[in-house]
């Protein structure tokens, strides 16, 4: 008897390959960043992941566009318009990265305000934080409404996306604020900048991979469920 084995990889394997390629791309750009500084010595902004309009930033743009397009696929698959609220969020992230909304608006916001900045931060930093928080609250309104009206799958998907966006916020906001406030030496500042921007890149890659996961047949897998099952298992072990 001859058995025929399909050479087509499973959807989960495809997801892993997709995320793996994205993360490899992230590390490649981090490698170019290091090479640009320590080997070539050119300090070219094109290969500097901390500078605007570099190749790494354009890679981020592509990932945000992919996420928005993949969410369109999820809408068609699940026949749920609730995901439009997430498309708006990621398109805002794209626009903010591309045209620096929170930087420019934050600068205008604090330009004529007379106050002494605290915690080692600049007035500009407080303006950027204010714009980011304000925009986040605005974007939360349609999201909360969609979660309230949406399906259980949408709610769990949203919790997972919130978690992954939390990683992005940690690197893009928290680490960034520490980077500014600590006034480190050149080496320390360079390392923290690499962690900040590299962490942002990997976070967006994970988001793209997760949204890709939602387009396929893995509808019963959620990060939230996996975390809760793990937590309950640990709790049961501790009690016993």
From TrEMBL:
The keyword Transmembrane applies. Keywords: Membrane, Transmembrane, Transmembrane helix. The chain crosses the membrane at residues 12-38, 58-76, 83-101, 129-148, 160-184, 190-213. This is Uncharacterized protein. It comes from Alteromonas pelagimontana. The lineage of its organism: Bacteria, Pseudomonadati, Pseudomonadota, Gammaproteobacteria, Alteromonadales.
């Amino acid at each position: 008897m001859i058995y025929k084995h399909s050479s087509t990889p499973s959807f989960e394997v495809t997801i892993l390959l997709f995320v793996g390629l994205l993360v490899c791309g992230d590390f490649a750009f981090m490698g170019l960043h290091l090479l640009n500084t320590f080997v070539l010595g050119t300090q070219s902004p094109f290969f500097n992941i901390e500078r605007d309009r570099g190749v790494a930033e354009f890679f981020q743009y592509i990932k945000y566009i992919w996420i928005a397009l993949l969410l369109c696929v999820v809408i068609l698959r699940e026949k749920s318009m609730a995901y439009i609220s997430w498309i708006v969020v990621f398109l805002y992230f794209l626009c903010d990265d591309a045209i620096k909304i929170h930087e420019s608006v934050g600068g205008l916001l604090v330009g004529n305000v007379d106050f002494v900045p605290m915690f080692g931060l600049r007035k500009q930093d407080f303006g950027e934080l204010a714009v980011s928080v304000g925009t986040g609250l605005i974007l939360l309104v349609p999201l909360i409404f969609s979660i309230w009206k949406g399906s259980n799958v949408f709610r769990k998907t949203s919790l997972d996306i919130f978690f992954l966006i939390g990683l992005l916020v940690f690197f893009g906001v928290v680490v960034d604020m520490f980077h500014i406030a600590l006034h480190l030496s050149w080496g320390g500042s360079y390392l923290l900048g690499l962690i900040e921007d590299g962490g942002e890149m990997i976070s967006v890659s994970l988001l793209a991979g997760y949204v890709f996961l939602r387009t396929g047949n893995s509808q019963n897998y959620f990060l939230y469920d996996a975390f809760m099952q793990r937590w309950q298992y640990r709790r049961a072990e501790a009690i016993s």
